[in-house]
Amino acid sequence: MKQSLPQTLGALRQSPHGVPERIRRAVKDEMRQNLLARLCTGGPVFAGVIGYEESVMPQIVNAILSRHNFILLGLRGQAKSRILRSLVTLLDDVMPIVAGSEVNDSPFAPISKFARTLLDDAKDDTPIEWVHRDQRYVEKLATPDVTIADMIGDLDPIKAARGGHLLSDELTIHYGMLPRANRGIFALNELPDLAGKVQVGLFNVMQEGDVQIKGYPVRLPLDVQLVFTANPEDYTARGKIITPLKDRIGSEIQTHYPRSVDLGVEITKQEAWTVRGTRVIRVPEFIAELVERIAFEARADRRIDRRSGVSQRLPITVMENVVSNAERRTVQAGDEDVVPRVSDIYAALPAITGKIELEYEGELVGGAVIARELIRRAADATFQERAGGANVDDIIMWFDEGAALQVDEDASSRAINQALDTVPGLLRIVHDTGLAAEDDDAQAVSAAELVLEALVARKRISRSDAGEYGRATPEPRRRPNDLFGGGVG
Asked: Looking at the domain assignment, is residue 488 inside a domain?
């Protein structure tokens, strides 16, 4: 493509790419026009962003059409970074700049001394480079150690010595990330973590359109679309963000977690690595729903820190671990298809405990204990949704009479099915409710475990950590003083 594009200013002027009005367009106008064109086609604004069609996306569209700098407020795992990175799709495919420019100078409206000098000397022979839209996106994670020099720039004594320039000369500047994002998008994640004096520097760029480096006023009318992310807890007028900067951000857009289990399942299916290319992997719908409900249960659990949130990465990584455990078992047991079971979800505990931040009450109980409770509650909710009216009395009675069932997570589907057949009515419920077909042993095992886990959640039967199901364990009776941590003397 580079060979077909003009390589000098003179050639650019004579080509269809050299329309000055188009090249002089501000980046916000460029994004606005490309967004309007996309809206005319009726497709999604950003591919791969699910669940925001009726809430977040209209606000983002309005912000871009209004040429606003905007901020996305939300907890972790709410697709904020994905949305920001998708903004580059609203830029033109390629953009001409003065060759060698560090700040993406337009050949028709240069802002740096380097580009102005080169244009004055070479005129129509000025070399032109073409920048792909992906190179026009600059992202930075805000941390307390980020300096003004990192963001705006600093004087470079070595540059001055080599070029024979005074330190006050603009040609001695080593530009920071923000000037290098000129004519593009600058994304700053976790804005409240940025030091106050650096926020003042951002405010100056947004308000005055210029920068000051080491006390030297350098006129750099940057053309940048500024976008930010932050946690709502940190984003307050009297908090970690200086009020003048907050006031200059045009739109404040709140993100959220999936509002329905179905949407969450769709997101996890899109993001989780479940197509391994080795064996056929069949994830039953109720397993996908159960995994998603773990996150929904965690977000409602008072022992888990809601300010930190429960990332959508939790069900994604749990699903990947679940499939991996099922894949391992299938290889060892000699089964054909990889069909995850509820026991595989228990094997994915590390993917749950690593994604939840516990309150004090939760710390007393322990992350692993809470994770197991979340799995059981999610299993019960899934069973009630899919087969809530099933009669389970025969199953409960069988266990109450002292029978037990050991489910070995590494056993083959055929072997487990034979053991499940000894439990009165269990497989009949599985088949009658449509959880598994009559001839699908692998999915029947998974569905039977779902039924048993739902009964465990309701304390109708018990389950050991080793996977043995038995009669319900009665709640221990407490003495009055036990409620306060023990008796006296």
From this structure: no
Tell me, yes or no, whether 231 and 288 share the same domain: no
Domain that holds residue 88: 2-254
* Whole-number Å distance between alpha carbons of 110 and 116: 6
Neighbouring-strand partners of residue 94: 132
**If you write DSSP's letter for every residue of 289-349 in order, what string do you get?**
HHHHHHHHHHHH-TTB-TTT---THHHHHHHHHHHHHHHHHHHHHT-SSB---HHHHHTTH
Three-state SS for 93? coil
Distance CA 372, CA 380 (A): 12
394 within domain boundaries: yes
Total domains in the chain come to 2
Give the tens place of pLDDT for each residue, 299-319.
Answer: 999 999 988 889 999 999 999
Specify the pTM: 0.86
How far, rounded to the nearest angstrom, does the alpha carbon of residue 49 sit from its chain's CA centroid? 10
- The proportion of the chain whose per-residue pLDDT surpasses 70, expressed as a percent, equals 89
Look up residue 1 and give its two tokens. 């493509």
> What whole-number distance in Å separates Cα of residue 31 and Cα of residue 81?
18
